[in-house]
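User: Before I run my own analysis I want an independent prediction to cross-check against. Here's the chain; please return only the structure tokens and, at the end, one sentence I can use as a sanity check.
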Amino acid sequence: MVGVKMEKLFGEICNAYELKGTLYKWARLKRGHINDTYRVDLLEDGKEKSYLFQKVNDFVFKKPELIVKNVKGVTAHIRCKMEAIGACDVKRNVLKLYENNGKGLYYTKDGGCWRVLSFVYNATTYDKFDLKKLGAIGRGFGIFLAMLSDYPCGDLYETIPDFHNTPKRFDAFFKAYEADTEGRAAEIAEEAEYIRSVACHADRFNKLYMEGKLPLRVTHNDTKGNNIMMDIDTDEPLAVIDLDTVMPGFAMHDFGDAVRYAANTAAEDEKDLTKVSLDLERYKALADGFLPPMLGKFTEVEIRNMPWGVILITLETAVRFLTDYLQGDVYFKTEYEEHNLVRGRCQLALAKDAINKLDDMEKITENYLKI
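Assistant: Structure tokens:
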């Protein structure tokens, strides 16, 4: 019955978007935690063509039509630039958002919100990376930001207001700690003391921005290594995906989040904190890919502050996990009672190591300013 229902739904979407061919098969993809994504294959004259059908979570994204506008704008900008320089394989290097009657979304009778995206052929994503893959992932994200360096930030809808407003994240933590609604504050007294000791750094980027020394950029805001498609045969970076969080921000946060995710020697929820550290080889591999495309398009202040991006995004992530723990685990999905506490402690351990290795990160980063 479910199969029949899905076949009818996907047939309805195919008609709405005027997709040619006969509905052939489909499969749900294990990609992302918010939207439901399906690979849908159509058959036309014996040839198979694939699309991505995505059900947008309009509980998380309150204004999906504005998110679609963001995605449409940035992908068109990148596509135009790639075509202008004669880039090969543009279709695999930037996603295409299909339209029906000039609209990017299709609403079903039961209120479901759907969109159709291009499928990137002969490509995959990775959750584990060697140094070569890290360099390629860094290059893919660096090119993405460089292509959008002249895109007007004011045209973008802020998908999640104050998403990387680090001072506000710290304030929310301290309020939750003082309120102690779940009786958990005593467990993290040591962590709270450390967070208080580094809170002076929280507004570093905001201060530089207010002083006119840092510009707002178009940023991805979820630069995990598995958010970029990689060519199966060559491991070269292709299209950056999961564009729903594209909005104005600081480039250092995107770089920092990529490092936080991929250069940690342990899992994000490792309980044994002796296993947690920042791997400088992985940091360098990411920087080797990420920073060269940005040179000449991003300011010296931005490049110099990339190591601080690692520190601040990691502290911010730690604070978010611990805030959620204090509030009863209402935001992040957890697998056991102390999961957010473990995550928060792990990220604090990583942040501490990043602070200890700040000089090393700065030396690596400085090399790009000499090019």
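Sanity check: DSSP finds 13 helices and ten strands in the chain.
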